[in-house]
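Changelog note: in this version the structure field was regenerated for every chain. One regenerated record is shown below for reference.
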Amino acid sequence: MTSFSLRQVKLRPGEQYRDELEVELPAFEFGGQRYVPVPEQVPAAFEITRANTGTVFSLQFTARLHGPCYRCLDDAVLEVPISAREYQAEDPEDEQMQTQYVVGANLDVSQWARDAVALALPEQILCRPDCAGLCSVCGKNLNDEPHTHEEEHGDPRWAALEALREER
C-alpha cells in the first residue's frame, strides 16, 4: 500500500509541496462484482498546501478498471478521472475538520485513492453505452444475437386471476 510520511515535508503557511507518486490501487467489489485496476499502480499528481489553519492534500490520477458489464456480463473497461482533496485542520475541534487518511505522521494514499475511485464510479458499469443486456427468456447476449420470442410465457401463478378476467 502507498503511504506518504508527512515528516519529510516541513511547510510554512502559504507554501506548497508537489510530487508525483506511484499509487497502488486495490481491487474493488462493486455491486457484488470484482473490478481490477489495470495497472495496479498508477502515476498520480500529489500536492500538499499549507494554510494558516491546516493542510490541504490534493491527488489527481486516472484509474482504469476491468470487470463485468452490469447488463450483459461481458468484459467492461472503465476509465475514471480522479481529482480528490482532503483537509486536515491544525487543531481539529470537529471531526469534519480532519481527514481519516492521516494517521500519526503518515498519509494513507492508497486508501484515499481507493475511496476517491469508489465515489467517482457510475451507477452501472457497462461494456458500451448502448449495451442491450441479456434476453430475459433464454439468457442469450442481445448484443451478439438481437432477437425476440414469439410466444409470450405467462407466469402460471397468475393463471387463476387470468381465468377470472376472462369470465367477465
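Spot check on this record: The chain has two helices and nine strands. Residues 3-129 form one domain.
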